[in-house]
Design goal:
Pfam families: GerE (PF00196), Response_reg (PF00072). With 226 residues, this protein is α/β, with parallel strands linked by helices. The protein has ten helices and six strands. Helices cover 48% and strands 13% of the residues.
């Protein structure tokens, strides 16, 4: 299956470099390029991209605002946003995930990592660099204002196994790692993750991470039991 990619960055040279890199992968296709946030939203709608590589700092409409518009549009439910920025700081990580981004990487990422990140995000998984994960956790220490009720009772819809797996997702474990820890098959682990996302109305794994910390299911600095 070919993954359709939209590049959104206001710098022509950077877009050109990403275009060459993305086009080098046989399963990836650059379908359009946007030089500002507003254009990115319009092209996401017209070109039916699967993944948008979104820069944060852009004219007219910044990348975070553009991401919110894309993820809030029901007609674009299948479009995933992977935020790329030179400013991999806590505030941006937190806001990018709250905006609905499925991943966050620094622009210094290695080419092979970027290609793999696009594939990961396209299949519905979340992708955060280790630095971004640390930033996301640190940001929750500042007690962000939740946009919806996030007390422990929100998790009542989950089974005990699903709660356990959501906790592991929040620690950054992949389906394979969760399966190994809990002695499950990877497909079973994925099924539990997908059911948890559906029950909690989460767009993807990144939002599961957010909810896990907001509800207190996982707390920064407190390891999950083995």
């Amino acid at each position: 299956m070919t993954i359709r990619v939209l590049l959104a960055d206001d710098q022509t040279l950077i877009r050109s470099g990403f275009r060459v890199l993305v086009s080098s992968a046989p399963d990836l296709l650059v379908v359009a390029e946007a030089s500002n946030g507003r254009e990115a939203v319009e092209l996401a709608r017209s070109e039916r991209a699967d993944v948008v590589l979104m820069d944060i700092r852009m004219p007219e409409l910044d990348g975070l605002a553009a991401t919110r518009l894309i993820t809030a549009d029901e007609a674009l439910a299948g479009v995933k946003v992977l935020v790329l920025t030179t400013f991999e700081v806590d505030e941006y990580v937190f806001e990018a995930i709250r905006a609905g981004a499925s991943g966050f990487l620094g622009k210094s990422v290695e080419p092979a990592e970027l290609i793999d990140a696009i594939r990961v995000v396209a299949r519905g998984d979340a992708l955060l660099s280790p630095k971004a994960v640390r930033g996301l956790i640190n940001r929750f220490l500042a007690e962000p204002t939740p946009s919806r009720p996030t007390g422990p009772t929100v998790l009542d819809v989950l089974t005990e196994r699903e709660r356990e797996i959501v906790g592991l997702v929040a620690l950054g474990l992949s389906n394979d790692e969760i399966a190994e820890r809990l002695v499950l098959s990877p497909s079973t682990a994925k099924t539990h993750v997908n059911r948890a996302m559906m029950k909690l109305d989460c767009r993807d794994r990144a939002q599961l991470v957010v909810l896990a910390y907001q509800t207190g299911l996982v707390r920064p600095g407190v390891p999950q039991s083995q």
